[in-house]
């Protein structure tokens, strides 16, 4: 099989931020509660005129520039999101904005696991020799779907986009992966669509679009993440024929500092190897891993040939890990 490499990264976040102090004006909460339970201090929020397509395109442009290719060279644009501007998908709008005329573009949804699932999906197209240059974007604007009166959820989320360029490469730098799903636990975390009954004609009752805000069983999600994430990382490491000591960076979905700490502890990975930027962005869902990756690369924290263990986990439930070399 052919190899793949990540050759560029990029990210974009809205300019507007909301800190914990600001949240205290919206709901009964405190900076102390939020920081001790989650580690989050502020989050970026997309203004009403700011689209997911805009954020994702900006992240994509930065990744393409770092990779040193042109948009016209892209064969595929894969957008991992749960919050497209259009339910038919937003990837095609990104393709148009980038001027990536040759690229096929489509959306895929796996909630907070979207980036890792997308990475593995993109890799299959490259490994089979079908495509050479892929732009993978993880982007979400969860602020559109949060109940801003529900303190159990509204303090957690933020908006953003991150992207990587994946290219065919002589040596394979995606070293191992493991993906999982468990629909029996679906009700832990939902952004439900509950159609309202509308009788068109006698006996013909259709449902009309009616979205409910995000609901979450925080304790269950916490338990799930801390139990399952170390397992898939172990499995992906096994497939990569690597030991946990050989990991340079642990890059988890940025849901909550307590989850990051607990997973690192279970894997016996020292704190200095754990990448965390959730204090500034909150949980940005599919964007969180590529956003943190891009920051760490641009800060020269992640260096060429470093080995990164990335893991996404979230609604579905879905979870997965990918071990790759920068
Ligand atoms: N401010 C103040 N008090 C709050 C807040 C808030 N923002 N939210 C909840 N509380 C209260 C609750 O009402 C409850 O009060 P009560 O005991 O009087 O009923 C008390 O704090 C404790 O609530 P719990 O839900 O038990 O708090 P817990 O310690 O479990 O922390 C948290 C909640 C932070 C959500 C935790 O469960 C967690 O980290 N879960 C992981 C979920 C997660 O990260 N989800 C992200 C989305 S999922 C994903 O990306 C995969």
From TrEMBL:
Region (ACP-binding): 254-258
Organism: Fischerella major NIES-592
Main location: cytoplasm
Note on domains (UniProt): The last Arg residue of the ACP-binding site is essential for the weak association between ACP/AcpP and FabH.
Function: Catalyzes the condensation reaction of fatty acid synthesis by the addition to an acyl acceptor of two carbons from malonyl-ACP. Catalyzes the first condensation reaction which initiates fatty acid synthesis and may therefore play a role in governing the total rate of fatty acid production. Possesses both acetoacetyl-ACP synthase and acetyl transacylase activities. Its substrate specificity determines the biosynthesis of branched-chain and/or straight-chain of fatty acids.
Record protein name field: Beta-ketoacyl-[acyl-carrier-protein] synthase III
Enzyme class: transferase
Annotated CDD domains: KAS_III
Location of this chain's protein in the cell: Cytoplasm
Reactions catalysed: 2-methylpropanoyl-CoA + malonyl-[ACP] + H(+) = 4-methyl-3-oxopentanoyl-[ACP] + CO2 + CoA; malonyl-[ACP] + acetyl-CoA + H(+) = 3-oxobutanoyl-[ACP] + CO2 + CoA; 3-methylbutanoyl-CoA + malonyl-[ACP] + H(+) = 5-methyl-3-oxohexanoyl-[ACP] + CO2 + CoA; (2S)-2-methylbutanoyl-CoA + malonyl-[ACP] + H(+) = (4S)-4-methyl-3-oxohexanoyl-[ACP] + CO2 + CoA
Family membership: Belongs to the thiolase-like superfamily. FabH family.
Gene Ontology BP terms: fatty acid biosynthetic process
Gene name as annotated: fabH
Active site: 112, 253, 283
GO cellular component, as recorded: cytoplasm
The protein's annotated pathway: Lipid metabolism; fatty acid biosynthesis
Domain Beta-ketoacyl-[acyl-carrier-protein] synthase III C-terminal: 238-326
Keyword Transferase among record annotations: yes
């Amino acid at each position: 099989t052919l190899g793949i490499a990540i050759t560029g990264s990029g990210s974009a976040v809205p300019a507007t931020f909301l800190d914990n102090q600001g949240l205290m004006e919206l709901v009964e909460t405190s900076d102390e509660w939020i920081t001790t339970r989650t580690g989050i201090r502020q989050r970026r929020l997309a203004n009403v005129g700011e689209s997911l397509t805009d954020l994702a395109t900006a992240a994509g442009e930065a990744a393409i520039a770092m990779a040193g290719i042109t948009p016209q060279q892209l064969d595929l644009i894969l957008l991992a999101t749960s919050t497209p501007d259009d339910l038919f998908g937003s990837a095609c709008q990104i393709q148009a904005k980038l001027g990536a005329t040759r690229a096929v573009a489509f959306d895929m949804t796996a909630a907070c696991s979207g980036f890792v699932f997308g990475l593995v999906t993109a890799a299959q197209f490259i490994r089979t020799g079908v495509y050479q240059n892929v732009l993978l974007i993880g982007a979400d604007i969860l602020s559109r779907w949060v109940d801003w009166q529900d303190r159990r959820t509204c303090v957690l989320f933020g908006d953003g986009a991150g992207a990587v360029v994946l290219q065919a490469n002589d040596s394979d730098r995606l070293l191992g992966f493991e993906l999982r799903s468990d629909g029996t636990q679906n009700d832990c975390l939902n952004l439900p669509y509950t159609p309202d009954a509308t009788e068109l004609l006698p006996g013909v009752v259709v449902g009309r679009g009616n979205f409910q805000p995000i609901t979450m069983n925080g304790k269950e999600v916490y338990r799930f993440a801390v139990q399952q994430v170390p397992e898939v990382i172990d499995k992906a490491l096994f497939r990569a024929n690597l030991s946990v000591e050989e990991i340079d960076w642990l890059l988890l979905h940025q849901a909550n500092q307590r989850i990051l700490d607990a997973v690192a502890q279970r894997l016996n990975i020292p704190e200095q190897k754990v990448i965390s930027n959730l204090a500034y962005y909150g949980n940005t869902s599919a964007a969180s891993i590529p956003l943190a990756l891009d920051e760490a690369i641009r800060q020269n924290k992640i260096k060429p040939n470093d080995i990164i263990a990335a893991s996404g986990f979230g609604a579905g439930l879905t979870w997965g890990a990918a071990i790759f070399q920068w």
